[in-house]
Design goal:
alpha+beta, Chorismate synthase, AroC fold, five-stranded antiparallel β-sheet, four-stranded antiparallel β-sheet, 11 helices, 17 strands, binds flavin mononucleotide, binds the ligand C=C(O[C@@H]1CC(C(=O)O)=C[C@@H](OP(=O)(O)O)[C@H]1O)C(=O)O
Length: 390
């Protein structure tokens, strides 16, 4: 499967075209919109989220509630566009326009794509960069991820995400009996955190950062249950599924690192405390006695839950601005800020869940018969039987 996205943060809309979903898969705007709403939430979000109520419109590839096998096209309107029609207009700029509309952004913001993007594409107005490099684009990545999640759920594969850490406050070790319970508890939390004590401390850390004109980052975790064993491959670098998940995670704006299972702790422990012993039972087939490696060996799924974490740096736009340089005057300046999120880790957890869902659904569609949803369901069930009896 593949998808492309288009659209600027303050342009009229965001668009995605998804190719490769099997025909006959049920898909509605309503289920996509649930995930779009989840992505908008979270303590620490800025004023833009009060303007937007993200809703996807399916404009191709679905008829009477089922995918057709043709590309699925989704659009999400930017409500904020109504305030930006001139600045973001597509017609050539009228020289008579006001100075405000003609004003170029020439001050590069540290931590953003502004300077590198301007340099790469030759833009003297860095709005041409920031409009597209903005994490507003993650809206349609979540829409594409919702379609992928639907496919996975029909195959008995479930995902959940949660916030593990914000601003150095770490949640207690996870303790849950089912992914549904984990989801219920984290959905109810303003920071998408399982641990009520840490939740309060995280919220206080966000408030403190905001008060001080600063921002904070954190760590999100995605857990996947029900993936059949043997998806992915060890035979070539670009077919390793764990590497695709890692790439997807770091492709999220502001994400800087990835861990699976015990992650970087593996560097500090002996092999006997890192590798997972293999066992067999007729009901479960092969399983691992522990899951320290987070569901992957040799670039393939082990059939154990996938546990993958992503690290988000603090939001780069600070009300207490960092020093930078104006590309016209080459003079130093300290930025003035209109609005920004102070922490978007809870929202980014939903983005992480979506991009991981996309990679897993793509791998499944690539590996098994996938023109028809029914055939795909049968193929995945057969893989489970085969692995159990192998
Ligand atoms: C959900 C989400 C919301 C974000 N909101 C903001 C924001 O309001 N202000 C900001 O400066 N950066 C925000 N970012 C981060 C920037 O988009 C990101 O740091 C920037 O595009 C540069 O990319 P890089 O950090 O991956 O190098 C957000 C990121 C995510 C995932
Ligand atoms: C719009 C979203 O996030 C935006 C991501 C973002 C950035 O620089 O990445 C900057 C802010 O944009 P604005 O300047 O319009 O307020 C955030 O609000 C969104 O998540 O939907």
């Amino acid at each position: 499967m593949r998808y492309l996205t288009a659209g600027e943060s303050h342009g009229p809309q965001l668009t995605t075209i998804i190719e490769g979903l099997p025909a006959g898969m049920p898909l509605t705007e309503e289920e996509i919109n649930k995930d779009l709403a989840r992505r908008q939430k979270g303590h620490g979000r800025g004023r833009r989220m009060q303007i937007e109520t993200d809703a996807a419109q399916i404009v191709g590839g679905v008829r009477h509630g089922y995918t057709l096998g043709s590309p699925v096209a989704l659009v999400v309107e930017n409500k904020d566009w109504s305030h930006w029609t001139k600045i973001m207009g597509q017609d050539p700029l009228d020289p008579e326009e006001s100075e405000e509309v003609k004003r170029k952004i020439t001050r590069a913001r540290p931590g953003h794509a502004d300077l590198n993007g301007a340099l790469k594409y030759g833009h003297r107005d860095m709005r041409n960069v920031l409009e597209r490099s903005s994490a507003r684009e993650t809206t349609v990545r979540v829409a594409a991820g919702a379609a992928a999640k639907k496919l996975l759920s029909l195959l008995g594969i479930q995902l959940a995400c949660h916030v593990l850490e914000i601003g150095g406050v770490r949640a207690a070790d996870l303790d849950y009996s089912s992914l549904d319970e984990l989801k219920e508890r984290t959905e109810a939390s303003p920071v998408r955190c399982f641990d009520p004590v840490a939740e309060k401390q995280m919220m206080a850390a966000i408030d403190d950062a905001k008060k001080n004109g600063d921002s904070i980052g954190g760590i999100v975790e995605v857990i996947v249950e029900g993936m059949p064993a043997g998806v992915g491959s060890y035979v070539h670098y670009d077919r390793k599924l764990d590497s695709k998940l890692a790439g997807a995670m770091v492709s999220i704006n502001a994400f800087k690192g990835v861990e699976f299972g015990i992650g970087f702790e593996a560097a500090r422990k002996p092999g006997s405390e890192v590798h997972d012993e293999i066992a067999y039972s007729p009901e479960k087939g092969y399983y691992r006695k522990t899951n320290r490696l987070g569901g992957f060996e040799g670039g393939m799924t082990t059939g154990m839950p996938i546990v993958v974490r992503g690290v988000m740096k603090p939001i780069p736009t600070l009300y207490k601005p960092l020093q930078s340089v104006d590309i016209e005057t080459k003079e130093p300046y300290a930025a003035s800020i209109e609005r920004s999120d102070s922490c978007a880790v809870p929202a980014a957890a939903v983005v992480a869940e979506s991009v991981i869902a996309w990679e897993l659904a793509s791998a499944i569609v690539e590996q098994f018969s996938s023109d028809r949803m029914e055939a795909l369901e049968a193929a995945v069930e057969e893989q489970r039987r085969y692995a159990r009896e192998f």
